[in-house]
Write a structure and sequence with these properties.
Elements lengths: L4 H17 L2 H26 L4 H4 L2 H21 L3 H14 L4 H28 L14 H19 L2 H22 L5 H17 L5 H14 L6 H32 L5
Helix pairs in contact: 1-5, 1-11, 2-4, 2-6, 2-10, 4-9, 5-6, 5-8, 5-11, 6-10, 7-10, 8-9, 8-11, 10-11
């Protein structure tokens, strides 16, 4: 079954209503899983692109990073969980349709945010750093852990130290515009293969372009701090998260939820 855009819009509303109506403890557990799934995608993206020197490979490492990172949203959408950046589309469009209140939106977001953060940081500390998959400062040169550490350091330093607030915000807008399009496309079909294909290209694109995804950054930046990347602190991390949250929210609500509500739902009778 392939849904047309107006049918996708109605499916998005239904999904948002279901998410907002879920009991708080189930929302929290599902959100923990989503944060962990995105972190798994980020971790495998680091490991497959580690050691690929840009002087030799050019921009191909970013393509490999983006392709591997798609695992995260595939797990979120097909295994089932609650990701804040996706909920920034689904729950507000339910409110725009009149089937939810804006109080429902404000109640859902903090729970999902806390759960996503817990899941991402759990994977960053225990499964990335404590396992040695990502090494640390002083790891033996040339080992897989050392290569993964170097790759993580490049990503985290760019996001935490080199991007300005305005750049983080704009990159986050572009990121969640694409992420929410991936969610939107996944609603077009009930086929698992179709969902994976629909998810792949928008997610690969935003990662390859270096855009900022709040939940991914909840993995990259803490993992870098836990691994001992010099010069990176929690103040840099919180600054990035604040502007990434704002940009992700604008990308989802303005460019996807509002746009498609206006196109397909505003004049559509209930």
């Amino acid at each position: 079954m392939v849904r047309k855009p107006p049918e996708i819009a109605r499916a998005a509303v239904d999904s948002g209503v279901e998410k907002a109506a879920l009991r708080w403890d189930k929302t929290l557990v599902g959100s923990f899983l989503a944060g962990a799934y995105i972190a798994f995608g980020a971790l495998v993206a680091i490991t497959v692109s580690a050691g690929l020197a840009p002087a030799i490979w050019g921009s191909l490492p970013t393509l490999f990073t983006g392709a591997a990172f798609t695992l995260g949203l595939v797990l979120v959408l097909i295994a089932g969980s609650h990701l804040l950046t996706g909920n920034m589309l689904l729950v507000p469009i339910g409110a725009m349709r009149g089937r939810l209140s804006w109080r429902d939106v404000l109640r859902n977001f903090p729970l999902v945010l806390v759960g996503n953060l817990a899941g991402a940081v759990f994977v960053a500390y225990f499964l990335a750093v404590q396992t040695g998959v990502v090494g640390g400062l002083g790891s033996e040169a040339g080992t897989p852990g050392a290569l993964a550490y170097e790759r993580l350091a490049v990503i985290a330093e760019a996001k935490g130290l080199h991007e300005t607030n305005w750049q983080v915000f704009l990159r986050a807008v572009g990121c969640n515009w694409l992420v929410c399009l991936a969610v939107w496309i996944s609603l077009a079909t009930d086929s698992v293969a179709g969902k994976i294909l629909g998810i792949f290209f928008p997610i690969m694109a935003f990662v390859a372009m270096g855009f900022d995804h709040l939940i991914a950054n909840m993995f990259f930046l803490p993992a870098a701090i836990f691994a001992g990347v010099p010069g990176l602190g929690w103040d840099d991390t919180l600054r990035n998260w604040a502007f990434a949250f704002a940009g992700n929210l604008v990308g989802a609500v303005v460019f996807v939820a509002t746009s498609y509500w206006y196109l397909y739902l505003r004049d559509d009778p209930e």
